[in-house]
Amino acid sequence: MMRIFGGKKGPSGFSASSTAEEVTQGIDGTGLTAIVTGSSSGIGEETSRVLALRGVHVVMAVRNLDSGRKAKEAILKEIPTAKIDVMQLDLSSLESVRKFASEYVSLGRPLNILINNAGIMASPFTLSQDKIELQFATNYLGKLQLLTGKDS
């Protein structure tokens, strides 16, 4: 199989093997606030870690608070000065999205960056508590509601 990118650097100077730390090197995110959905593991956790490393105040929006707190502690172990909050958000639930948005607004913080990382894929057919197919509710409707503040 032919490698599509072949490890060759593009016009940006980065390649498919570049890390988030390399891509953000030299960026000062001090004074910025970011919400990262699905940030208790994987790409979302790494995104949160690197944003925190660059000085961004990160709000880890997670379905499972215990997992989110563990991820936060792992980041703080490496970056003790990181500003990180963990808030509950289940994108498959329109009520959870409403509650998250209301709680976030009540904090009085700006929102400079929204990274809609959370998602599910190829799960068995299941309905959300709102009686919407779970993958559609999570990957589309919940994100749309979070972004616009309107029920879909």
From TrEMBL:
Record-linked PANTHER family: SHORT-CHAIN DEHYDROGENASE TIC 32, CHLOROPLASTIC-LIKE
Which protein, by its recorded name, is this?
Short-chain dehydrogenase TIC 32, chloroplastic
- Recorded source organism is Turnera subulata
Starting at the broadest rank, the lineage of the source organism is:
Eukaryota, Viridiplantae, Streptophyta, Embryophyta, Tracheophyta
